[in-house]
Amino acid sequence: MAAGGPHIPVLIDAILSHCAPIEGTWLDGTFGAGGYTRALLEGGAERVIAVDRDPLAFDLAAEWAGGYGDRLVMQHGVFSKMDEYGQGLDGVVLDLGVSSMQLDLAERGFSFMKDGPLDMRMSQDGMSAADIVNSADEGVLADILFHYGEERASRRIARAIITARPITTTLELAGIVEKCLPRAKPGQSHPATRSFQALRIAVNNEYDELYQGLMAAERALKPGGKLAVVTFHSVEDRMVKRFLTARAGKQANANRYAPETTQAPAQFTVKSRKAIAPDAQELAANPRSRSAKLRVAIRTDAPSGAIDAKSIGMPQVKGTL
Ligand SMILES: C[S@@+](CC[C@H](N)C(=O)[O-])C[C@H]1O[C@@H](n2cnc3c(N)ncnc32)[C@H](O)[C@@H]1O
């Protein structure tokens, strides 16, 4: 990602084409720099309800948002509550993770490349990363690193964190993690990448937000309404895939040679079984799109319901923070 550059919307052309025609009222659950919202408003949506948990996102949009008048409704909040912000929606779009603006501002504490307070709160309230790092039990810390960051050296890193506490800055933490791991080879990601991702997910409760958000989208979309979700790592993509597979009336992980068992009713029809990835042109123009995956589904008229978090592979950390 270009340091200090604007946030480049990922897979937006693919979203517009797979969801065509774009019309009616859409909800953008991750407004960020407003790239998706603007593309939807320019691409045929009559109205967009733009949601973000970060109040700063809307401040930054003040310059241009007024130009859309009442076609753009800005809503500070979390996308897990989207059905409280809109009903009978024609479309919902989610672009998970942090924005370039959040990463680039050292004082937000998301980046292991910039020195800042160990914060990572998208909504700028609640428990910060420093609160977790300095108060969680060693076992809970190790579980966060392992389950949310897929960090294999989780126990070693958790031990080193406990020994070094209190830790207050991003570079202090990055240095502690680096000492626990072999030096990165050329082309490999920075050793602190997984630990920072894990803490960010814990601070912002990201997996529960995704799980609740998918169910909220099911409640908020009208029959024929479209759901487009862009994820950036395998755990998120697996959750979206399993949710949609289950809601499309298919069994997740079913043996492909076994006869397909369909459990009516299905709440979604999946547009393509395989996730949609950026093409070579987008990859060249925007390295941040490298790990992005898009899944699109269409809401049916079956009643909405609930699904078990475990059944869609949501990692859960036991113990209190
Ligand atoms: C990757 S950026 C979105 C960028 C946007 N699509 C664009 O084109 O500018 C993700 C944004 O979603 C917000 N966000 C993440 N999780 C959220 C949640 N559960 N509810 C509401 N906003 C969330 C973050 O604060 C961030 O601003």
List the helices and strands and how they pair.
Blueprint lengths: L11 H7 L6 E4 L6 H8 L4 E6 L2 H11 L6 E5 L5 H4 L3 E7 L4 H5 L24 H7 L2 H12 L4 H11 L5 H11 L12 H11 L2 H15 E11 L2 H14 L20 E3 L9 H6 L7 E7 L22
Parallel strand pairs: 1-2, 1-4, 2-3, 4-5
Antiparallel strand pairs: 5-7, 6-7
S-adenosylmethionine (SAM) binds next to α2 and β2.
Description:
The protein has helices at 12-18, 35-42, 55-65, 82-85, 100-104, 129-135, 138-149, 154-164, 170-180, 193-203, 206-220, 234-247, 280-285, and strands at 25-28, 47-52, 72-76, 89-95, 221-231, 268-270, 293-299. The chain is an alpha/beta fold and 321 residues long. It has two domains: 12-100 and 206-312, Rossmann fold (3-Layer(aba) Sandwich), CATH 3.40.50; 124-203, DNA polymerase, domain 1, CATH 1.10.150.170. α3 links the parallel β2 and β3 (72-76). α7 (138-149) crosses α8, α8 (154-164) packs across α9 and α11 runs parallel beside α12. It starts with 11 loop residues before the first helix and ends in a 22-residue tail after the last strand. It binds S-adenosylmethionine (SAM). S-adenosylmethionine binds at residues 7, 9, 29-30, 32-36, 51-54, 57, 78-79, 95, 97-99, 122, 209.
